[in-house]
Amino acid sequence: QVRLVEFGGGSVQAGGSLRLSCAASGYTYSSACMGWIRQAPGKEREWVAMIDSDGYAQYADFVKGRFTISRDNAKDTLYLQMDILKPDDTAMYYCAADLLCDGGTWGWDYWGQGTQVTVSS
Asked: Does the first or last residue of the chain, that is N or C, have fewer Cβ atoms within 10 Å of its Cβ?
């Protein structure tokens, strides 16, 4: 059974940092593409970042230079280091997995339950 569990959300002031983690289980983590997607209240989901099985990372323009996605295949864990946070970054952040790495930025097979990030001005 595939399971994705996010950790690390919380409240921070603008300009601060948070590090999200996502613990994966139930599939071959090292061969999957992994991503972070967020959704703010009243808004559509936004793709934030993704990383393939070789460690190649891609980012949405609105987080480039501020967020860093990484993975530890030995620990089956995905990370999102978020720096220079802005109030607009306030959202529920979801971890997602694309087991065959064939779905692009929106072809996710499994999702976590999400972790809330709140940035105050």
From this structure: N
